[in-house]
Write a structure and sequence with these properties.
0% strand, mainly alpha, 77% helix, Arc Repressor Mutant, subunit A, 142 residues
Length: 142
């Protein structure tokens, strides 16, 4: 696994993407986005509608500079790159987490801990693969 892919996995863990969209550690992140006026975006990601995009400058207004700096330091990248990566991947990650939460709720015989763990692994893998593809296409373009 490349350092970049590992950093994205760490970023996914920092934001709570491995614990489900509604009840896990991602909930405070989504609440912060809603409180910053991005509730329409969050609802589109969690409600099964077509996910609306979120732009890096909107995320910069929603999260404190300290939060973004910590995430950047922990991921070994820049605050600008953290915001761009979140803009690119957070909507899809939340859509997948929300879908997994809905599926887990429909199947009472499925342990929610197992469902959350499987969903987290899938999201981390998808986020990392998308970032690697984006990085490779950017490298080839230059």
């Amino acid at each position: 696994m490349s350092g970049f892919a590992g950093a994205l996995g760490q970023l996914a863990q920092m934001l709570g993407m491995t614990e489900g969209a509604t009840g896990g550690a991602l909930a405070p992140v989504l609440a912060q986005l809603e409180n910053a006026g991005l509730g329409d975006r969050v609802r589109s990601w969690t409600g099964g509608a077509t996910p609306l995009p979120v732009h890096p400058h909107e995320l910069a207004q929603a999260f404190t500079p300290q939060q973004v700096s910590v995430w950047a330091a922990q991921s070994g990248t820049t605050p600008h790159h953290v915001l761009a990566t979140l803009s690119d991947h957070l909507p899809t990650a939340v859509v997948h987490a929300s879908a997994a939460d809905r599926l887990a709720a429909l199947r009472p015989d499925t342990s929610s801990a197992n469902a959350i763990e499987a969903m987290g692994a899938r999201i981390s893998r998808e986020v990392m693969e998308a970032a690697i593809r984006r990085r490779r296409s950017g490298t080839q373009a230059t």
